[in-house]
Design goal:
The protein has helices at about 5-10, 10-35, 45-50, 85-90, 135-145, and strands at about 50-60, 65-70, 75, 115-120, 125-130. By secondary structure, it is of the alpha+beta class. The protein is globular. The N and C termini lie far apart (about 85 Å). About 15% of the residues are buried. Residues about 25-50 have low confidence and may be disordered.
């Protein structure tokens, strides 16, 4: 029996079933890969890839600038002195690195000479934030970051 005749003899449903099931398996595999964040391996927490920061703190008193790393995965890592506390605090915030809106009215309250920069990635988005304590808005922003900016 020629191949075309054999396929027809098996019935159109059997032929369609043989084509649809492998195609469905491929689509499900592609969907699973697309749902996983880029750069993450199977079983790896996406936060361990996406939540890594570098913090530089200048106390403004002439002492050396302090520099820490912070990785917030399943377990906090890095050189930050309060890594787990900082990770927990940041995860509890809606958008910890949101800039102060340009139209915000800020009280002229000087909070000190300290400055800091925070760079890296948080929840998959780039972070490049400069923080100071020169007015009420920046003091509130600094204080809002809690244990990320110790002291």
């Amino acid at each position: 029996m020629p191949p075309a005749t054999r396929r027809l003899a098996a019935g159109p449903c059997k032929t369609a079933e043989r084509l649809v099931l492998p195609a469905l398996a491929i689509l499900l595999t592609l969907a699973a890969c697309a749902a996983r964040p880029a750069g993450s391996a199977a079983g790896e927490s996406s936060s361990s890839v996406d939540d890594h920061l570098t913090v530089e703190l200048d106390r403004g008193d002439g002492s050396a600038v302090q520099r820490w790393t912070l990785i917030c995965g399943d377990h906090a890592q890095g050189t930050h002195p309060a890594a787990q506390e900082a990770c927990n605090h940041l995860r509890g915030m809606d958008d910890p690195f949101a800039p102060i809106p340009d139209d915000m009215i800020c009280i002229q309250q000087y909070g000190g000479p300290q400055t800091a920069s925070v760079t890296g990635r948080w929840t998959g988005r780039p972070v490049d934030l400069a923080v100071s304590r020169v007015d009420g808005c920046t003091v509130a922003q600094w204080d809002g970051l809690g244990p990320l900016l110790p002291g």
